[in-house]
Design brief:
The complex is a heterodimer of chains A (317) and B (427). With 317 residues, chain A is α/β, with parallel strands linked by helices. Helix content of chain A is 39%, strand content 14%. In chain B, the strands form 4 sheets. In chain B, strands 8-9-10-11-12-15-16-17 form an 8-stranded parallel sheet, sandwiched between helices. Chain B has a 6-stranded mixed sheet with strand order 3-2-7-18-19-20, with helices on one face. Chain B has a 4-stranded mixed sheet with strand order 5-4-1-6, with no helix packed on it. The longest helix of chain B is centred in the middle third of the chain and has 18 residues. Chain B starts with a strand and ends with a strand. The chains are: A alpha/beta (317), B alpha/beta (427).
Chain lengths: 317, 427
């Protein structure tokens, strides 16, 4: 099967998922992001001209202030012109299809699309549709993928743990509905993490999740035992409907990350969360704000990683 | 018209004929096989040298989209597709708009189809009004109007008491009930098989137990009510095994599979190919293998196209939002030939599944070429290879997961009721 993300020279043409990306491309993104962290922190001027004259369109069919803002900041630091479109679900109900919207934006000479959509595969569909000089970055499609989130997570892990090949990582929570978890799993296994665990009740795990290369745990204490990294997932409130979970309280009791549970992990384990957090549902405030939490640095690194992705895409021939 | 089909290889599964024999048609009927009837004078001669002459195909599931969905397809376009595919008899599910729940609608559809003088249309009536699953339709009236069976199409009947009564009522008159097994709750919002691919792509899933739980209910109710149950579009290994056991126990149950499921699995979805968004969903490779075994051992009686033309815009959407379905009638014969070749099944045996077996499921006298029978004939060239180009298909629905695939075998002539309704270009 052709990898729709790579061009004929094997370079990154679109970033749609972390699945199937060669390790050299993942490492290249992380290395490039390191340069941008230095740009952000070391110099007075926080702007580089790599995307000067390029138009980046943030098209969000699903609301997200946080992710959209980090992409916007990243694009502006690369000197791009940024257009934000919150399309929501209303425009499609007016009769315009997803690809009609995209065609219209192409006619406005977009160079890059940052796409978020509630349906799995939306970014792939757009990438197949646009002209070859246009790049698509998936900012989250349904339950499928959220590659820049996973890459900033990898950046954070590398920042604190230096290497991947000696780590034990636990991903905790609603894996079934999580595009973040899927992208994290592919990135971690590609980068050589020998042990990736998922920890969740059976209702929140997809069928045959072990085929993604993870070990399945239903017990928090066992799942967190001796891990180096704890990656928490957000629990959406609507999971309490449809018989997936009885209540947020009961979920917190068995799967919430507390100091006591975190003590099962290695003493230098780091705690991550893609945000926005539900304090008291999946994570206790004392952990979220605690010594082992790297949740705020994740956000900072997110900008550098998104700058790296955009500049690499813009450089593809 | 008097037609002499000469020099062809005749394959007629019902009569167990696979031999070079001429076929003689007088007026609307087969008048002779091998030997010309007395004082026969041909008005038209078809030289079938190198070609295979077989009964016209019988397709038990072809959506024509009329009434109500003319933007997806029309009777005209889909009848052309049927003719190009050698399909001379077809049954259409009742999921039109409005559904086929009134005798007048059925009569109108039959009348429209007859006036086109192409494939014979045998409608499947709605089992419940509006396919809503609560009130029974007038099955006797619908049968008199031309319905050959009763079905819920893809609308699931969740109320088991209504289902039991519908079966009891149908059994009273010896009517056939055709049901696709799928538990509505377990399948809710699902768009792909619950397995490796849906997990990887993050697609809402339909587990195999959605099929087997519904199937278990149907089989038990069929046993209880004595209705003639036909299981539509079986998709899983476990489902096939349940039908196999039920048949072995002597239950009057029959079963069909769509050609898509004989050749494709969830793996073909690749990166969200909406052409592979089908209902029931494409399942695992293990399921596909079991469906093929079920075809070989007779558990599955017929192969259908499950022809479901969809308009282009409805497929140009993210996988889950895209409408399920694919066009199929023009590919039914070559895909059955491909299956037969892959499995080493002689044509005489293989072609049963698209001729006499589906005709018997419908209870119609088609699907064979006996002297005196309806002159519905398909003549195809088994040696020609061709590449599927969806834009070149006659069907208004252009979406097929087989676009770009190479097929072997193509229809050259289709004869319905003694007239040549289609002649393809010789390649």
């Amino acid at each position: 099967m052709n990898n729709p993300q790579l061009n004929k020279n094997g370079e990154l043409q679109h970033l749609l998922t972390t699945e199937g990306l060669p390790v050299r491309i993942l490492r290249n993104i992380l290395d490039k992001a390191t340069e941008f962290v230095n740009v952000a922190e070391g110099r007075e001027i926080r702007k580089v001209p790599l995307l000067h004259g390029k138009s980046v369109f943030n098209i969000f069919f699903e609301n997200s202030t946080r992710t959209r803002t980090t992409f916007e900041i990243a694009a502006k630091r690369l000197s791009a012109d940024v257009v934000n479109l919150n399309i929501g679900s209303s425009s499609t109900s007016k009769g315009e299809t997803l690809l009609d919207t995209v065609d219209n934006l192409c006619a406005m000479h977009a160079d890059m699309f940052i796409v978020r959509h509630s349906s799995s595969g939306a970014a792939h569909l757009i990438a197949q549709h646009v002209a070859p000089e246009i790049h698509v970055i998936n900012a989250g499609d349904g339950r499928h993928a959220h590659p820049t989130q996973a890459l900033l997570d990898m950046f954070t892990i590398r920042h604190y743990k230096k290497e991947f090949h000696n780590l034990r990582v636990a991903i905790v929570g609603d894996v079934l509905h999580s595009r973040v978890a899927r992208s994290q799993i592919h990135a971690l296994t590609t980068l050589g993490v020998p042990e990736v665990r998922v920890v969740a009740p059976k209702t929140l795990l997809p069928t045959q999740v072990e085929k993604l290369g993870v070990q399945v745990y239903h017990d928090m204490a066992q799942g967190l035992k001796d891990v180096d990294v704890v990656m928490m997932l957000r629990l959406q409130n609507e999971r309490m409907q449809g018989g997936l979970l009885p209540s947020a309280q009961e979920y917190f009791k068995y799967y919430g990350l507390t100091q006591e549970r975190l003590a099962q992990a290695k003493s230098d384990a780091i705690v991550m969360h893609p945000g926005p957090m539900n304090r008291g549902v999946e994570i206790d405030s004392s952990v979220a704000d605690g010594m082992q939490s790297v949740i705020l640095p994740q956000v900072t690194f997110g900008i550098a990683v998104r700058m790296a992705v955009m500049s690499i895409l813009a450089g593809a021939k | 018209m008097n037609i002499h089909i000469k020099n062809g290889r005749l394959i007629d599964p019902l009569n167990n004929i696979d031999a070079n024999q001429d076929v003689y048609i007088v007026d609307k009927r087969i008048a002779g096989i091998g030997v010309a009837p007395q004082s026969f004078v041909a008005e038209q001669v078809i030289d079938a040298n190198g070609l295979i002459v077989m009964p016209g195909l019988v397709d038990v599931a072809a959506r024509l989209r009329e009434p109500g969905y003319e933007y997806k397809a029309t009777l005209e376009s889909e009848m052309d597709a049927a003719m190009a595919g050698g399909v001379t008899s077809l049954s259409c599910p009742p999921d039109t708009d409005p559904p086929l729940d009134e005798p007048g609608l059925v009569e109108m559809l039959k009348h429209r189809a007859r006036s086109l003088n192409q494939a014979r249309v045998f409608p499947v009536g709605a089992l419940t009004y509006g396919l809503k699953g609560s009130d029974l339709t007038e099955m006797v009236e619908l049968t008199e109007a031309g319905c050959k069976a009763f079905s819920q199409a893809d609308a699931m009947l969740t109320d088991t008491r209504v289902l039991m009564r519908a079966m009891q009522y149908a059994a009273t008159f010896g009517y056939r009930v055709w049901l696709r097994p799928q538990d509505a709750f377990l399948a809710k919002d699902g768009v792909a098989h619950d397995g490796e691919v849906s997990t990887r792509l993050g697609l809402p899933a339909i587990p195999v137990i959605a099929e087997t739980i519904a199937l278990a209910t149907m089989l038990q109710l069929a046993r209880e009510t004595g209705v003639k149950l036909h299981v539509c579009r079986i998709s899983s290994a476990d489902g096939v095994e349940m039908v196999r056991v039920a048949k072995r126990q002597g239950l009057a149950v029959t079963c069909d599979v769509s050609m898509n499921h004989v050749h494709l699995s969830e793996m073909d979805i690749g990166f969200f190919d909406a052409n592979c968004h089908l209902m029931p969903p494409l399942r695992s490779q293990r399921d596909k293998a079991a469906l093929r075994t079920g075809l070989l051992d007779g558990t599955i009686d017929a192969i259908c196209s499950n022809h479901s033309p969809v308009d282009e815009d409805a497929k140009q959407l993210p996988f889950a939002e895209a409408e399920a379905g694919a066009t199929g009638m023009e590919l039914l014969l070559p895909l059955v030939l491909k299956w037969a070749e892959q499995e080493g099944v002689p044509l005489l045996d293989a072609l049963k599944r698209i001729t006499i077996n589906p005709a018997q499921l419908l209870g119609v006298k088609m699907g064979h070429l006996s002297a005196g029978s309806h002159a519905d004939v398909c003549i195809f060239d088994p040696s020609v290879t061709w590449k599927v180009e969806s834009s070149a298909l006659k069907s208004q629905g252009k979406n097929t997961p087989f676009n770009g695939h190479v097929m072997q075998g193509r229809v050259r002539h289709t004869i319905v009721e003694g007239h040549i309704a289609f002649s393809g270009i010789s390649l």
